[in-house]
Amino acid sequence: MNLLTDNNHSAINSEIIEKEKMFEQMTEQYEIAPMPGQIDNEILSKLSGVSVATVGHLTWAGFMDHHRIAPRQFGKRIIGTAITLRLPTPDSTLLHYASGRLRPGDIVVIDRAGDSRLACLGGNVAYGLARSGALGAIVDGPICDPDEIAEHDLPVWSFGVSPITTRRTGPAGSLNLPVNCGGVVVHAGDLIMADDSGVICIPRAEAAVLANAAAAKEATSTQRRADMKAGATLGALSGADDLVAEYGVSVEVAQ
Prior knowledge:
The chain is an alpha/beta fold. It is 35% helix and 18% strand. The strands form two sheets. Strands 1, 2, 3, 4, 5, 6, 7, 10 and 11 form a nine-stranded mixed sheet that branches. It contains nine helices and eleven strands. The termini are far apart.
């Protein structure tokens, strides 16, 4: 038995089956919806000093799976308007097309339909997105050329890295229709926030209310740090001391 040959045949067969499954999703067309209106500057201004984790104190909804979607460069932070792409096959034509239509303040959100092998975004694509004024990209799938992407100063959050890339193979996919990214449904025009802690999608209709609440929460957090620096304890400020005083019980521990 030639194990090397058998293993090669097995790998080739697996790859053929994988590709057949992906091409089954071909729609023979590109579905393209209009570019959405951008998030209001007043909302963006209120969120300019707010971290994703601060929003996490206010809601559990809209956060992309942090085990799946992670930053490729640290120390980056973006807030902007979602432009959605679904690329369900090895074809990345629509991403190239979209790169010439993005506006400053847009954030590209890409649904790779479960593929974790083929990278749709690399150095040249990142350069094209950066040139358009895009703030960054969120990819539920791998990227390649992370060093080049960093050189182009395009913040990216993705599901890992892969050296194997997509192609322009034939019509399939959508632009500015709803996608699933990191387990969250994202609509074109939604608000995207991303930093070292993770990524959240805030529905457009909820953005103004959440921005007000998040800005107030951030201010409270800043004041709390100032109070602790002046000598107050966290438990006294947060109310934890009062709760333990009300519900705490003494427990005897054998010596």
